[in-house]
Amino acid sequence: MTALTKDRPTAQRAGDLVADPLAAAVTIYAGAMYVLDGSGNATPATAAATTPVRAVARKRAVQAQGRAMS
Description:
It is built from no helices and seven strands. By secondary structure, it is an all-beta fold. The protein has a domain at 20-65. A three-stranded antiparallel β-sheet has the order 4-3-5, with no helix packed on it. The radius of gyration is 11 Å and the shape is globular. It starts with 19 loop residues before the first strand and ends with a strand.
């Protein structure tokens, strides 16, 4: 699985919306799947991740901007 380098359109379906804090030095692009690390912070999903996917990001979130995932 190649890491995203820009936002991508992703179809949405009805479901619960969640908001999670971002891990340090992380960017999660709109349309990207993300997982929670051991501290409960959002990090991009990878093929090697052993935790289940938490959600798909609705908008880009950059930790340096102090945003939470939503």
